[in-house]
Amino acid sequence: MKQLYLKGSGLNPAAPIGLASKFGHLQIVETLLQQGATPFVLDKQGDSPLYAASVAGHPKIVKLLLQLHVFNASNPPPLEATLTSNKFQPGENMYECLTLLSTATLQEIEYVVGHVIGNDPIQVYRCPDMNFVLCILNALHLCVSLGHPVEVLNAILKPVAEFPDVVSWIRIRIADPTALLEGESALITAAGASKPLFIKPLIDSGICQVEDRAPKTNKTALYIASENGCLRCVEILLSLGARVSAQSSSGRNALHAAIERDNANIVKLLTQHCSISDLVQKNNAGVSPIALAENRGRMKIVKFMLQAYRRLATSGNIPKTGLDDYMTRLLEKHANLL
Questions:
Q1: Which of 127, 128, 202, 240 could, after both became Cys, cross-link 208 (CB 3.0–4.6 A)?
Q2: Would you say residue 123 has pLDDT above 70?
């Protein structure tokens, strides 16, 4: 009966260790473990003590259970399970739990790569076990898609700096077009959801880079933010070095995207960070941003672009391709705008 009580069974799936973990009774959990209770027991819902402690926000119990190497026993991975739980409640205790789970995830990736692959980063994407890196990547996507506050993202990213090699291996997975189910950098997800507060932490972590591209469309985060009309996202991405000239698979740059959606304020901002070449960069259909604006009759945008050209031309930044004649004709044609 003692074994049944401590470890649970089909008749008693909710063993005391699960209940003690759920309600935050650290001393009871310690006592049960000392008496031989298993930390792997699942309740009727299939939840482990680690999951129960995580979603309830009990970091001391989470830390204790992780020290017992129960991480791999949890399915789905505890970090993802916690983020998707309908019991999830943001708060300092929860953030501490997420940092602990993130650390354990990164340690597991480090172990798999170091001991299974043999520290050869080039072979990372060929190892089936490296699908485990999806745990951390999916967690970042979940932070955005589920509408969690940025503090949740920061808690997950907090230990990342301690694992520079893991970050390099994760970048290899992101670069591999067959590696991810969604194939997206979390930065692309954040730009698509217009989450400006998420952008800098993702890039600073090294897991995402400012020039990350969306699969198939090859759009950058700057392109997507310009398309969606998120001015603050565009401001942050430009400050972090995003290029206006980066083209999508259709040959369009961020100016094309903003003009198409008539996002005049974003066009004005982009023209403060572009070159003359960006203003006349043709897409696959042979249409430049300024021609697109003129064709659509968006004179306010045409005005911003002509002002940018005049400013850049005055500084002597004119390409030797005859573009100055083309733009001069536009200046004459739309002199009433200036």
A1: 202
A2: no
> What one-letter code names the amino acid at 297?
G
CA–CA dist 185, 187 (Å, integer): 5
Query: Matching CATH topology for 1-75 and 243-338?
Result: yes
Where are the chain's structural domains?
A: 1-75, 243-338
Burial class (CB in 10 A: 0-12, 13-18, 19+), 51: buried
pTM of the entire structure? 0.86
Task: Give the model confidence (pLDDT) of 285-327 as tens digits.
Answer: 999 999 999 999 999 999 999 999 888 887 765 554 555 667 7
Q: What is the pLDDT of residues 18-41, one digit of tens each?
A: 999 999 999 999 999 998 888 888
Strand partners, 213: 220
Domain at 243-338, CATH homologous superfamily: Ankyrin repeat-containing domain (1.25.40.20)
Alpha carbon distance 290, 325 (integer Å): 14
C-alpha span between 62 and 205 (Å, rounded): 24
Query: Which residues are registered as beta bridge partners of 220?
Result: 213
